[in-house]
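Lab notebook, bench 4. The sequencing result for the construct came back, and we need a structural model before the next group meeting so we can plan mutations. Quick request posted to the team channel:

Model the 3D structure of this chain.
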Amino acid sequence: MVRIRQRAVPGVFNQQWQAGSAGIDKWFALQASSHNPDTFATVQALMQHPAFDLKNPNRVRALIGAFSQANPLHFHAANGQGYRFLADQIIALNT
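Done. Here's the predicted structure in token form:
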């Protein structure tokens, strides 16, 4: 029951604040810093979210920055996927 409620809250937050850029940035950061087992998949999926734009520095900081700086559990995963993800995003930002 608790997991359902925790998963429902971000969806409600997204719906309520989707027009406000600061609110959506906080929502991205919240998702990226989660310790839920599926956080890496969530971050990858959020890269395709309509409100995410790789050309918007605040969105990049909120999603990619929060994942790499505020989520040591998933960013430093033993399989290296966090490092590869960050490297791929840095390359994309520089092209």
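The chain has six helices and no strands.
Will bring this to the meeting.
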